[in-house]
Structure to design on (314 residues):
């Protein structure tokens, strides 16, 4: 007899609930179809079956194409208040706006990408290290003078026990195949009382019901392996001795345009590279303002940010 399948986040036996899908890749042009399975107890939604590591490395190979590394792009870092105000309008979730770094704190930007955030913290004198899985990005970051460590796999985080006061992961956590093991690793590298900030798609978002299968570009299958809401994240956090300090959500207008693009171009599986009339600034900016107004009464929006604290003496 095959064992009853159970939720990989909270361990509850799955009820007979309808799977989400089949979903196809809407963003990078991959062939195939995938299904997701919701847990009725903790609300986590998991890809089922989970892709193997080999399959994942094939999927991620599609990322490297069309990527250009440009670390010289100037951000609005000289005007943090202006940036914050703009992000309030655009809905962009930017750790520079909300990660508070006390003097002398050690910070890790896990999945630092093009060092867009890391650069700013670094320039402000923060002792920040990046970690990144894409070799070409690690090389570019190091060349630009940043301390960035290459990550070989998601099973281990290549840092010493208790090395960091603050770790943030922006749009990374939902890609992980083994969230429990990763939380263990995060708890290990954080000091007692250390802070963990996660930003990721919010499965409780009101827009999910509106856009259905097209939501955040077809659930970003097959790259987003787990989807969470506040409850699912709190369940995971508790199991690894983290407390929830606060959580909030907002919808980046760029995500909203992706939702619309996926909905309008129903057969397109390369939405990320499609230039659409929605990207025209005379459409995008009014849409951004409209979105802010529409969202006022919504409680749950597309991108969830949670601040967790590792238990222990500060
Ligand atoms: Zn569950």
């Amino acid at each position: 007899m095959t064992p009853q399948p159970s939720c990989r986040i909270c361990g509850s036996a799955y009820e007979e609930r309808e799977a989400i899908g089949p979903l196809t890749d809407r963003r990078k042009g991959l062939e195939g179809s995938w299904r997701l399975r919701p847990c009725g107890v903790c609300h986590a939604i998991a890809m089922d079956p989970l892709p193997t590591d080999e399959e994942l490395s094939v999927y991620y190979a599609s990322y490297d194409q069309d990527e250009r590394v440009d670390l010289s792009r100037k951000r609005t870092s000289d005007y943090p208040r202006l940036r914050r105000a703009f992000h309030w309008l655009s809905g962009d979730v930017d750790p520079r706006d909300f990660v508070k770094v006390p003097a002398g704190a050690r910070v890790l930007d896990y999945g630092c990408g093009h060092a867009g955030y890391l650069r700013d913290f670094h320039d402000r004198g923060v002792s920040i290290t990046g970690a990144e899985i894409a070799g070409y990005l690690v090389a570019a970051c190091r060349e630009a003078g940043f301390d960035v460590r290459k990550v070989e796999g998601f099973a281990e985080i290549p840092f010493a026990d208790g090395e960091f006061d603050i770790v943030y992961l922006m749009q990374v956590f939902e890609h992980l195949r083994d969230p429990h093991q990763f939380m263990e690793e995060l708890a290990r590298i954080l000091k007692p009382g250390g802070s963990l900030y996660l930003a990721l798609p919010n499965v409780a978002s009101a827009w999910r019901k509106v856009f259905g299968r097209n939501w955040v570009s077809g659930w970003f299958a097959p790259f987003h392996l787990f989807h969470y809401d506040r409850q699912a994240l709190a369940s995971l956090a508790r199991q690894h001795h983290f407390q929830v300090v606060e959580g909030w959500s907002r919808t980046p207008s760029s995500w909203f345009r992706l939702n619309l693009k996926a909905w309008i171009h129903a057969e397109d599986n390369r939405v990320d590279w499609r230039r659409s009339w929605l990207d025209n600034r005379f459409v995008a900016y009014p849409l951004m303002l409209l979105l802010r107004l529409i969202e006022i009464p919504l409680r749950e929006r597309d991108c969830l940010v949670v601040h967790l604290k590792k238990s222990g003496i500060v």
